[in-house]
Design brief:
The protein is α/β, with parallel strands linked by helices and 561 residues long. The protein is built from 14 helices and 25 strands. Helices cover 25% and strands 23% of the residues.
Length: 561
């Protein structure tokens, strides 16, 4: 008997797991718990041969039908062949920001045509082939968005998006940094990203009747880890105190003028013109990376002099605040709970995910809406936010995350007909993720001497934030209690910022200088961080009056000029 995936087979042997065969067959299956069953990421569909596997283990109790965890699915019989596939579904990916009229927008790319010559800056790099194209890249930990731009007209001609294929290295940056440190896997994460971005470029140019050699520049926005992996830079220093990129260390040591990167497509192995350049936006500091700089360019934080805060919510949330000519920033390691990880029936924004929900008095779903209108199979981040707010609103849950009617109750039946439950353990994991977001906003505002009601505009960036019910997010303390009419959802501001720097080279020097002028706050060094985190774990709004910080020297804060 055999074990197979997409027609490739291996001899079936009792005692091995599906994950063992995934390794042998070079099938990329994500995991971040060292195959202990805790992360719930290595879901596979067993299309044939379920009877040859041992019964589901406790970590698999949330699964139904033909789905198993690859690390737990152990072969106990050789009477039936096994055929499996990783669970790969296309999530709903926000491909663009919410573009508004931009009085400063201009077309002045690095790559121009002069007669029959193509020039990068002042250098002739090619003979005109009939088109000059550029690509903006938002390389996220979970998803990737590419935008193909005609650099002669400034028009976007194609967009594509997909899950980041690096997830076999874990669901967050710290797990991927750890994966990179393992023996025998060096370069795998980079190869996966390069191959995926290259394939995306090929698909987009083919869609408009062109070829990769028509692409002369690629501009990349990404967090510190994702950017440096793509550029082939060792990322181990980002995972260790003081959590800084090697590039940031070089900048701080005076060995480079800024933290932006520039390479050729040939050096990185990307599908493009062989003389094409790849520009990586600068980092701010530590985990506050180039994606945050791209977002700042999109919303033009502080250009009007107003007090404004940007919150890009994700596995690693970035918070940037402008007040009285100064910029402050912090990164919040929220983890994957609001993206489906660590929650029994949590899931990403696939078809069938509950994205909004209202509860009945017993805690069951009175009404809900799923992505794509499909039958519910789990609940994604926006739905989880609604759920927590509803439990509090109906007094079914205390601020400490305990079910109010029965404090010993372990779980409620959320959608009984589909077997979907919600447990105290789920609440605990969401509370910690929420607390990380709470701490970042709280400490940044307190450092700047601003209260939530003093924020003139709160920009919410990212796909998760785009679908949030703002009122519910405020009520559970996920975002600061800024008056709702001042909250602006800006969509995928990272890809917008990358595109802006692609079509207008004059914005790059400003972005590079802006990154230097942001004061980075290390949350974990705040004297009362633990107290703030504990308070942030409670399901209640952040107070508008922020208590003073304990006395400390604090960082020097440069003015924004």
């Amino acid at each position: 008997m055999t074990v197979s995936h997409l027609g490739t087979t291996r001899e079936l042997r009792i005692g091995r797991t599906i994950f063992d065969y995934a390794d042998e067959l070079s099938v990329e299956v994500p995991t971040s718990c060292l195959r202990t069953g805790r992360c719930h990421e290595c879901v596979v569909e067993v299309a044939e041969g379920m009877e040859s596997l041992a019964p589901r283990t406790e970590p698999e109790s949330f699964l139904r039908g033909d789905f198993r965890l690859a690390c737990q699915a152990r072969i106990v019989s050789d009477e039936h062949p096994i055929r499996f596939e990783p669970l790969r579904r296309r999530p709903r990916i926000l491909e663009s920001g919410r573009r508004r009229p931009d009085p400063e927008e201009r077309l002045d790319p690095m790559v121009i045509r002069t007669g029959d010559q193509v020039r990068y800056g002042g250098e002739v790099i090619d003979t005109y082939r009939g088109a000059i194209l550029g690509v903006a890249v938002d390389l996220g930990t979970t998803t990737v968005v590419l935008e193909l731009v005609d650099l002669e007209s400034g028009q976007t001609v194609s967009v594509t998006s997909f899950e980041n294929p690096q997830q076999f290295g874990g669901s967050d940056v710290m797990n991927r940094i750890s994966y990179e440190a393992r023996r025998g896997v060096a370069g795998e994460l980079r190869n996966a990203a390069v191959a995926a971005v290259g394939q995306g470029i090929r698909e987009m140019v083919g869609h408009v009747g062109k070829r990769p050699p028509h692409v002369y520049e690629i501009v990349v926005a990404a967090n510190s880890t994702m950017r440096d992996i793509l550029f082939g830079i060792d990322v181990q220093s980002i995972g260790q105190k003081p959590y800084k990129s090697l590039i940031e260390h070089e900048y701080l040591d005076g060995r480079r003028p800024n933290t932006a990167l520039l390479a050729t497509s040939r050096e990185l192995g990307l599908r493009a013109n062989r003389r094409a350049r790849v520009y990586g936006l600068p980092l701010i500091a530590s985990h506050v990376g180039a994606d945050a700089v791209a977002c700042l360019e999109t919303v033009r934080l502080g250009r009007t002099g107003a007090t404004e805060m940007l919150v890009d919510i994700g596995t690693n949330t970035e918070v940037v605040l402008h007040h009285q000519g100064r910029l402050y920033a912090a990164s919040c390691p929220a983890g994957p709970a609001f993206e489906g990880g660590l929650v029994t029936y949590g899931m990403r924004a696939y078809d069938g995910a509950i994205e909004s929900i209202r509860l009945a008095g017993d805690g069951s779903a009175a009404s809900y809406q799923t992505i794509g209108g499909a039958p519910p199979s789990g609940i994604c981040g926006s739905g989880l936010t609604d759920l927590l707010a509803e439990l509090r609103r109906l007094d079914l849950m205390t601020p400490l995350g305990v079910f109010a009617k029965d404090r010993k109750l372990a779980a409620i039946d959320l959608v009984p007909e589909r077997g979907i439950t919600f447990s105290r353990r789920d609440i605990g994991n969401l509370a910690q993720a929420k607390a990380a977001n709470y701490c970042g906003q709280f400490i940044v505002m307190r450092t700047a001497g601003v209260t939530p009601s003093g924020i003139d505009r709160l920009y919410l960036a990212g796909g998760f934030a785009n679908y949030l019910d703002v009122r519910n997010a405020i009520e559970i303390g996920l975002i600061a209690p800024v008056p709702e009419e001042r909250v602006v959802k800006v969509g995928n501001a990272s890809i917008e910022g990358a595109r802006a720097l692609l079509v207008d080279r004059t914005r790059r020097p400003r972005a590079e200088e802006l990154a230097k002028r942001v004061t980075h706050l290390e949350l974990e060094t705040t004297p009362d961080f633990f107290e703030i985190f504990v308070e942030g774990c409670q399901m209640k709004p952040m107070p508008d009056t922020l208590p003073p910080a304990p006395e400390s020297a604090g960082p020097a804060v440069p003015e924004l000029v």
